[in-house]
């Protein structure tokens, strides 16, 4: 892939896209994966307790209490994700339409009230769903997240070009990090974009560059 290859996105983010991005963040960050495993283990345990209780005593008050508790926890978890998505949607709509350019140097974002450029060293992994590309920072929480809706691509063939760009850039960054751990590469001295180290979350400039 040549260095001048770039992909452009133009979009105004939607609530569903933000929710998808947050879901992927939860499922693909190291801490998020462990949380999912714990939640599934708890759900399995509660299901077993309910089944044993029903087999032994029928649908009595204790079984109903456990069922209500399980349903309440599930509703709270879903509601929390959607409330967070609504908060991020309000901020993203305040910034206006997003115009994002992705190339080998990083990700540049321009909106009606915000301009930023983030280098690839900020990100550590990328996941993809039917609607969005999601870039995550390499920390265990995946705290920095950039959501890029696929519908914002300027051309249908840009989907595959985006995948190639992401694969190349993130592989390069993993190699650099591995070399730094071995002490063979010194961190670059950057005098601009000092705010890149800040934890970002949400769509477009809310979440990434």
Count of runs of 4 or more consecutive helical residues: 4
The spatial strand order of the largest sheet comes to 1-2-3-4
Distance between the termini: 23 Å
Written as H for each helix and E for each strand, in order along the chain, the element string is EHHHEEEEEEH
Structural class: alpha+beta
Tell how many strands the DSSP assignment holds: 7
Task: Provide mean pLDDT, rounded.
Answer: 81
- CA radius of gyration is 21 Å
Helix content: 40-55%
- Name the overall outline: elongated
Query: Could you tell me the strand content as a percent range?
Result: 15-25%
- Major sheet description: 4 strands, antiparallel
Provide the low-confidence segments as ranges: 187-209
Describe the fold and architecture.
The chain has helices at about 15-30, 30-55, 60-95, 160-180, and strands at about 5-10, 100-105, 105-110, 115-120, 125-130, 130-135, 145-150. It contains four helices and seven strands. The model is unreliable at about 185-209 (pLDDT under 50). It starts with 5 loop residues before the first strand and ends in a 28-residue tail after the last helix. It is α+β, with helices and mostly antiparallel strands. A four-stranded antiparallel sheet has the order 1-2-3-4, with helices on one face. The protein is about 50% helix and about 15% strand. α1 crosses α2 (about 30-55), α1 packs across α3 and α2 (about 30-55) runs antiparallel to α3 (about 60-95).
């Amino acid at each position: 892939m040549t260095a001048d290859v770039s992909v452009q996105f133009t979009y105004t983010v939607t609530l569903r896209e933000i929710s998808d991005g947050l879901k992927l963040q939860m499922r693909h960050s190291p801490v998020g994966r462990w949380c999912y495993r714990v939640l599934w283990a708890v759900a399995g345990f509660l299901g077993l307790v309910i089944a044993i209780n029903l087999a032994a005593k029928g649908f009595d008050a204790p079984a109903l209490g456990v069922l209500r508790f399980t349903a309440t926890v599930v509703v709270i978890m879903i509601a929390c994700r959607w409330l967070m998505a609504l908060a991020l949607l309000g901020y993203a709509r305040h910034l206006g339409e997003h115009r994002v350019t992705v190339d080998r140097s990083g990700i540049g974002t321009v909106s009606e009230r915000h301009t930023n450029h983030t280098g690839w060293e900020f990100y550590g992994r990328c996941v993809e769903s039917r609607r969005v590309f999601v870039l995550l920072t390499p920390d265990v929480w995946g705290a920095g997240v950039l959501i890029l809706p696929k519908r914002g691509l300027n051309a249908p063939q840009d989907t595959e070009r985006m995948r190639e760009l992401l694969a190349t850039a993130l592989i390069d960054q993993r190699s650099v990090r591995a070399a730094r751990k071995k002490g063979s590469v010194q961190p670059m001295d950057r005098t601009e974009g000092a705010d890149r180290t800040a934890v970002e979350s949400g769509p477009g400039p809310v979440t990434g560059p």
